Amino acid sequence: LASRLQGFGTTVFAEMSALAVATGSINLGQGFPDQPGPPEVLDVARAAIGTAHDQYPPGPGQLDLRTAVAEHQQRFRGLTYDPADEVLVTAGATEALTAALLALLEPGDEVVLFEPMYDSYAAAVAMAGGVLRPVRLRPPVVAAGEVSREPWTFDEADLRAAVTPRARLLLLNTPHNPTGKVLTAAELALLAEVAQDADLLVLTDEVYEHLVFSGAEHVSPATLPGMRERTLVVSSGGKTFSTTGWKIGWVCGPAPLVAAVRTAKQFLTYVNGGPFQPAIAAGLRLPDDYFRHVAHDLEQHRDLLVTGLAEAGLPVVSPQATYFGTVDVRPVQPDGDGWAFCRSLPERAGVVAVPTEVFYAPEHAALGRHLVRFAFCKQEEVLGEAVARLRRMR
Ligand code: PMP
Ligand code: GLN
């Protein structure tokens, strides 16, 4: 393994999903839904197989999908992008992010981002020769057996200290995996000010944009004054349409930045997912009601999980968005080792979860050692059973 990839072994999701299968446990580790997406979307994909959609789509993605992405940005964010050269279809958000980093970073360029962070970020920055400058997110304080609805927060001083003269790019993720945090208007204003003062490019991962619960509102950093011109917005259809295996993603931004991403992207996958592209286009054009219902349904599942985890005696941070809740395992794992807790959970309770430690850079792992992430994007009966098992945990 090349030195730039040392330390990036197997993703935690592969390991934990394999553990769930091997032990017959309920998998609340890797975040994927166990219910099919909307029939309007699935039917289009079925009908597209066996047609010209089975062959290579155009390099930037099918024009109709790029148009649907632009319409969706206009409808939900009030952002205008030209499907001709400001929208690029990618193999999931993952490829969009990696291609953007490969396209935009010089070796040694610094990437400022919040930690914990989604696990592909550190590897993608490393592949691009960049350097991570993490800013710490702090969980709210919560007692055993209680649910906190307070968000994770960060210190302005930590953010400013992370921005050195080598800083090139601010990598944001809102709503945020694994914390479930949605950046507030005040936080976004500060981030926009810092990005503009330091002349940073902004790459924003918004794959959970529609999975936002009551009381919170998703705002794209690109909508703030002076930000559209320096921002690449990344999202994908996996979460919104319960099709995480389809890997249809996209990136929107000013033409020169999108052209740079396309240059890298065309030599990674060139194109992907022919029959799924028209299907995601149909999904993006569903009425507002669809998007409201997705979040509303998921919110009931969030409440079922966080209540159950609290009843199991854990301190719980209820997320404002996403598929994930976080617990502090110390009341049931006195050594505070979240990895050990996750490895023993199949035996203790027949459930699989993911240690939050994996979302930290190795040198900061201690900050997340006692935290564990549980996914709630599962059917009510499945979550109910998982919660019952956790309450009986040995
Ligand atoms: N970003 C975040 C924050 C994620 O949680 C995920 C995984 N669901 C991705 C990106 C990857 O998205 P995709 O499957 O579209 O590549
Ligand atoms: N994003 C999903 C999660 O955080 C998993 C994606 C993956 O398996 N790479 O659980």
TrEMBL record:
Its cofactor is pyridoxal 5'-phosphate. Pfam families: Aminotran_1_2. Residues 26-390 form the Aminotransferase class I/classII large domain. InterPro entries: Aminotransferase_I/II_large (IPR004839), Kynurenine-oxoglutarate_AT (IPR051326), PyrdxlP-dep_Trfase (IPR015424), PyrdxlP-dep_Trfase_major (IPR015421), PyrdxlP-dep_Trfase_small (IPR015422). It comes from the Bacteria. SUPFAM superfamilies: PLP-dependent transferases (SSF53383). GO terms for molecular function: kynurenine-oxoglutarate transaminase activity; pyridoxal phosphate binding. Its EC number is 2.6.1.-. It is an enzyme of class 2 (transferase). Keywords: Aminotransferase, Pyridoxal phosphate, Transferase. GO terms for cellular component: cytoplasm. The keyword Transferase applies. Coiled coil: none annotated. Belongs to the class-I pyridoxal-phosphate-dependent aminotransferase family. This is Aminotransferase. It comes from Modestobacter italicus (strain DSM 44449 / CECT 9708 / BC 501).
